[in-house]
């Protein structure tokens, strides 16, 4: 990955590199020669205690998807707006939005939060836009140079947050010149009051949501785009019929309506987040050679630590069968939440062993 703040550029499609992702457990199992079932995968930030799948009738698998089922109403109730388009995971909207922007306005100058989910940058580059990485602290000063601003709130992997007042101000600035503010809220379900979704979506404001992280249903591939009517219509035409399979629609409808589970999940995730922060603070407290101002930041679904020996720590944890996500340019590790007491104990023990070994090397 490049450093944030590099000049915007339009790259030929052949030079646009597909990003890497977490969750490559099979590759890790082969590399470290540890059987797949012995791994603890903390690399993705997905709720390890996700919504429980109920029994589903076989007939559901035999029916073509119907857009007039209960999914959109359930989503409108959960998110607080009916101005939405269901998509096959927010990834489908991430892929199509740069194409739609190109159709409406041609090549645009786009600022993308960095570090961040690399698929945003990839698809804006792939569709011929001038794209520049922006660190969070650069946005206020540099925003006037861009037609579109693409954010993740809270940000993955940095856990940086943007408050609603700041986002509203940035939206007004870009919308005044025909621009867009795109906000990926994939990790915001634990604090829904911070969402920028509106009952009537303002022009130039686009919000993406997904059932993958909070609900732990990444395999369903269900998400939603919230935007004004023009963008919703163009996206609907672009993705066509049957984007989301019937079983996925059926299950998503019920997960979105399960308010009791949602309340319990928010409580459990918050206590687990706090527990993981404490565990990492204690494990890394005496580690030599840490970066000045070493940072531990968290969302409701993951904790990110920045240390100068991040690669070595990730390697030592992997040798213990624990997969975390390493972000090389930022010397950071992202830890998802353990799902049970066995995983918590194994992580604590592995962190103790890994940091002790690193301390001995550096003494």
Integer average pLDDT: 91
The end-to-end distance, rounded to whole angstroms, is: 32 Å
- Per CATH, which architecture of the largest domain? 3-Layer(aba) Sandwich
How many strands in all? 13
Tell the overall outline.
globular
CATH superfamily of the largest domain: Type I PLP-dependent aspartate aminotransferase-like (Major domain)
CATH topology title of the largest domain: Aspartate Aminotransferase, domain 2
Tell me the number of helical segments per DSSP (H or I, 4 or more residues long): 11
Structural class: alpha/beta
N to C succession of SSEs: HEHEHEHEHEHEEEHHHEEHEEEH
Low-confidence residue ranges: none
Give Rg in angstroms: 21 Å
Q: State the share of residues found in helices, binned by percent.
A: 25-40%
Number of structurally distinct domains: 2
Q: Which range does the strand content fall in?
A: 15-25%
The spatial strand order of the largest sheet comes to: 2-8-7-6-5-3-4
Text of the CATH class of the largest domain: Alpha Beta
Largest sheet: 7 strands, mixed
Protein name: threonine-phosphate decarboxylase
Pathway: Cofactor biosynthesis; adenosylcobalamin biosynthesis
Keywords: Cobalamin biosynthesis, Lyase, Pyridoxal phosphate
Cofactor: pyridoxal 5'-phosphate
């Amino acid at each position: 990955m490049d450093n944030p703040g590099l000049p915007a550029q339009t790259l030929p499609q052949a030079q646009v590199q597909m990003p890497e992702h977490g969750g490559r457990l099979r590759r890790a199992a082969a590399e470290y020669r540890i059987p797949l079932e012995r791994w603890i995968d903390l690399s993705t930030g997905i709720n390890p205690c996700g919504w429980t799948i109920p029994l589903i009738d076989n007939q559901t698998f035999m029916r073509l998807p119907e857009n007039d089922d209960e999914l959109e109403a359930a989503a409108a109730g959960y998110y607080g707006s009916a101005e939405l388009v269901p998509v096959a995971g927010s990834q489908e909207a991430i892929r199509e939005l740069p194409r739609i922007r190109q159709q409406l306005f041609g090549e645009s100058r786009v600022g993308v939060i960095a570090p961040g989910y690399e698929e945003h940058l990839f698809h804006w580059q792939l569709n011929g836009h001038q794209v520049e990485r922006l660190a969070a602290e650069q946005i206020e000063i540099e925003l006037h140079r861009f037609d579109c601003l693409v954010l993740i709130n809270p940000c993955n992997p940095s856990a940086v947050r943007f408050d609603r007042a700041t986002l509203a101000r940035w939206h007004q600035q870009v919308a005044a010149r025909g621009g867009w503010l795109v906000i990926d809220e994939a990790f915001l379900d634990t604090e829904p009051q911070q969402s920028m979704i509106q009952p009537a979506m303002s022009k130039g404001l686009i919000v993406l949501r997904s059932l993958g992280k909070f609900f732990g249903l990444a395999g369903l591939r269900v998400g939603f785009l919230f935007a004004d009517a023009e963008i919703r219509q163009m996206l609907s035409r672009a993705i066509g019929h049957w984007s989301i399979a019937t079983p996925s629609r059926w299950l998503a409808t019920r997960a979105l309506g399960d308010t009791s589970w949602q309340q319990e999940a928010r409580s459990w995730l918050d206590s687990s987040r706090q527990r993981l922060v404490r565990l990492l603070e204690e494990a890394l407290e005496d580690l030599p050679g840490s970066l000045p101002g070493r940072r531990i930041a968290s969302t409701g679904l993951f904790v990110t630590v920045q240390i100068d020996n991040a690669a070595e720590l990730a390697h030592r944890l992997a040798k213990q069968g624990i997969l975390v996500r390493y972000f090389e340019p930022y010397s950071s590790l992202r830890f998802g939440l353990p799902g049970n007491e066995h995983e918590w104990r194994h992580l604590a023990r592995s962190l103790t062993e890994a940091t002790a070994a690193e301390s001995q090397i550096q003494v």
